[in-house]
Specification:
The protein is built from six helices and seven strands, in the order βββαβααβαααββ. By secondary structure, it is of the alpha/beta class. It has one domain (about 40-195): Nucleotidyltransferase, domain 5, CATH 3.30.420. The strands form two sheets. Strands 3-2-1-4-5 form a five-stranded mixed β-sheet, sandwiched between helices. A two-stranded antiparallel ribbon has the order 6-7. Strand 6 and strand 7 (about 200) form a beta hairpin.
Length: about 200
């Protein structure tokens, strides 16, 4: 198989591996106490198996509340879907720190230029240190075991609808022991109505 160039089709490690020279921002979260919403957001990408291929999901997560502020699904790893999700998140709030890995999607001037550096500090994980983004990794684990591994998405539309519903339930219905048995939405939003559009209806009491 090696001589013939034959290999299995599966997502390779380091989905956002970056070989392009780029500015490296310092990791700002070591020893930081995260105690209020929008203090720190984490952003990351994961792959999703579907019938006949793979999709890619980016999520912006408020680390204090575990609330998924925005997400976007894509059929490719081009940067644009990350930019779209970031713009959507910034319509909701402005974080004090945005933390990402050093993947190509997050190190382009287009992405880093979205943030008002007088209000938001950019933080980047050390290379090979997935636990620098621990709260996002925990969400991916729950998401994969409770949603992706249980499904066999037959189309992009089916995946979008099912994932959107999972994230809505994760935000608004699922209680967390670490949040004193409150939902992420209760901690992040209190009693405020956040937003409504044609693709989501995200409300609290």
């Amino acid at each position: 198989m090696e001589h013939m160039g034959i290999e299995a089709i599966y997502p390779k490690p380091n989905l956002s591996l970056n070989t392009t020279p780029h500015k490296v921002y310092p990791y700002l979260l070591k020893g930081l106490t995260i105690s209020y919403p929008n203090q720190v957001w984490g952003a990351d990408i994961t792959y999703i198996k579907m019938h006949g291929g793979y999709l890619y999901l980016v999520a912006f997560i408020d680390w204090h509340s575990r609330f998924i502020v925005a997400h976007k699904l894509s059929t490719t790893l081009e940067t644009e879907f990350c930019l779209e999700a970031a713009r959507e998140a910034l319509k909701i709030a402005t974080p004090g720190i945005i933390n990402t890995d050093q993947g190509v999607q997050f190190t382009t001037p287009d992405f880093t230029g979205l943030w008002d550096l007088e209000r938001t500090k950019v933080s980047m994980d050390h290379k090979g240190r997935c636990f620098d983004n621990i709260f996002t990794e925990r969400f991916w684990r729950s998401f994969k075991y409770e949603e992706v591994y249980l499904k066999d998405y037959q189309s992009v539309r089916e995946a979008e609808e099912s994932i959107r519903d999972y994230i809505r339930r994760y935000n608004f219905d699922r209680i967390h022991q670490a949040l004193d048995y409150k939902t992420p939405a209760e901690v992040y939003l209190g009693n405020q109505i956040l937003w409504e559009d044609s693709s989501r209806k995200l409300f609290v009491n």
